[in-house]
Amino acid sequence: MEETIVLAYPLILVFAAAMIYAAISDLLTMTIPNKVSILLIAIFPLAALAAGLSWPEFFSHLGAGAIVLTAGFAMFAAGIFGGGDAKLLAAGALWIGLEQLLPFIYLVAIFGGILAIVILAYRRFPAAIAAGQQWSIRLHDKSGGIPYGIAIAAAAFVAFTKTGLYSQLLG
């Protein structure tokens, strides 16, 4: 049991660090590197093993990721969502699983709405407020997008702590 806990903490830390990195990267560059989603997908089996997930639980997590990836790419194809957002959302759903998938998506929408309101308010200030920092200028541009990776990461933090995977990892 102690070996599992020793492995669990670094896995949770990697999950958190990857989400924070994705959020910061999206804020600063309006991109979420593929390596973030790949890392989250690659270490998920270790987390599932460390948590002692049963095969049905494991496959329900895979199903959640697949469902969200499919929906995310449909939204990407329709021009509603960025590709990096779709991949990060799917990687987050993999860790969240079916049990908390709807609350996760709900939280993404809520946090995304709050984020959009904050950014739209920021864009009402004079452009001089954004002077000097490229990311701030890009964020201030009314034709620019919203760094939705921030909302995805925030929702992932909240939803993940409610999952069986999380409680089994800390077991």
Topology:
Elements: H1 2-29, H2 34-51, H3 55-77, H4 83-96, H5 101-122, H6 134-140, H7 149-160, H8 164-170
Helix pairs in contact: 1-2, 1-7, 2-4, 2-8, 3-4, 4-7, 5-7
What's the short version?
The chain is built from eight helices and no strands. By secondary structure, it is mostly helical.
Please tell me about this protein's structure:
The protein is elongated. It is mostly helical and 171 residues long. The chain has one domain. The chain starts with a helix and ends with a helix. The longest helix is centred in the first third of the chain and has 28 residues, at 2-29. The chain has helices at residues 2-29, 34-51, 55-77, 83-96, 101-122, 134-140, 149-160, 164-170. Helix 2 crosses helix 8 (164-170). The mean pLDDT is 93.
Poorly predicted runs of 5 or more residues? none
Helix proportion range: over 70%
Distance between the termini: 9 Å
Helix and strand run? HHHHHHHH
Mean pLDDT: 93
> What is the tally of helical segments?
8
How many domains make up the 3D coordinates? 1
Q: How is the main sheet built?
A: none
Structural Rg: 17 Å
Instruction: Say how many strands there are.
Output: 0
How much strand?
under 5%
Question: Structural class of the helix and strand makeup?
Answer: mainly alpha
Shape: elongated
